[in-house]
Amino acid sequence: MPISAYTATSNATSNATSQTTYWQQLPKVLLHEHLDGGLRPQTLLELCQHKQLVIPATKPSELADWMLANANAGSLVRYLDGFALTVAAMASLDACERVAFEAAEDARLDGCVLAEFRMAPLLLEEYNLAGEAVVEALIAGLQRSDLACGLIVCGIKLDPPEKILRAAKLAACYQGQGVIGFDLAGPERGFPPALFADALALARNAGLGVTFHAGEADDGSRVLEAVALGATRIGHGINVMYARSAAQQEEWLNQARAAATHFEVCPTSNVHTGAVASLATHPLHDMIEAGLSVSCSTDNRLMSGVTMSAELQAVHDQNGVSKLQIKRMMQQAAAVSFLPEAARNKALETIAAVDFG
Q: Deepest of 52, 68, 80, 315, by most Cβ within 10 A of its Cβ?
């Protein structure tokens, strides 16, 4: 190779490494990460082999590639299919604790100073695991890490109302003991927020933070419906930017701003589920410019093949989000976290002290 070509290659590699290091070193806040969508590929492989589950690959990298290909199918329903394997792999208390601990450690090593993780414990009832035991195992795993973090218990919209109510009661039982919030996840179309009013009220009255998956695969009006039922944060919510008229758009934005609704946006995941065509056309930047409270998260690190550092770099490079706006997003995320005030304030101080460039 000519010296000039070698130098150019070396400089390019050096610049790429420098950029990666820059984004990893930034203090970050992660609000939206599903534990059953964020397993390390090696861990998933080992858990599957231990349980003798049928798997589509026998190497961690190939398994990760399969998960990504399955997720990147342009459909939320197809995206969710991969969870059948990860949930089966997690179907032991030791596995739950391991996955939670590794998720917290991965986030900490990626520069997170505060993080929230979520899962639907009752998914594991099918494998004869009590919801209480699953919650305790997940909390134990998170608490083994030095990262300030907590657990959001999810109900699944596909489940019968009584099971969703049990999920809310389960979350309430562990409020103040590691569980910090309640969420409704799963398919959106056909499952309006009003169906879950009782569960949301129970969680809210128990002092839990309430978030709700809405406005990704369904109409933006669902965001405001969830807010009216007590959700202070919305998972995704990007369709709030796609009203049918200018007047309706302004009304939606005014309502969201007035309620101080926070949007936990997961850009790469939104591309994979087909909610948006690309990162370049994602409404994240427009949401920020519209004065909404927004943060950026990974959703499912395994399924979407992302990290917080890579996600922030991508929205900066491809979506036009400035480094100052990224800092502001991290501050907003810390401010609306369901974790105790001391943890929120410490994260805010750490972020404020860093020049994001």
A: 315
From 216, 225, 264, 311, the catalytic residue: 216
- In a domain, residue 22? The reply is no
Neighbours of 15 (CB within 10 A): 10
Alpha-carbon torsion 140, 142, 147, 148, what sign? negative
216 carries an active-site annotation? yes
Tens of pLDDT, residues 288-326: 999 999 999 999 999 999 999 999 999 999 999 999 999
Cα–Cα dist 240/243, whole Å: 7
Closest CA to 274 of 189, 192, 188, 216: 216
Q: Which residues pair with 161 in a beta bridge?
A: none
Tell me the helix, strand and coil percentages in the chain, rounded to 5: 55, 15, 30
The domain total for the chain is 1
Beta pairing partners, 118: 34, 152
Q: Taking the model in full, what pTM does it have? A: 0.92
* Residue appearing with tokens 């976290």: 337
Distance (Å, rounded) from C-alpha 27 to C-alpha 75?
32
Contacts of 108 (CB under 8 A, 6+ apart): 115, 145, 146, 147
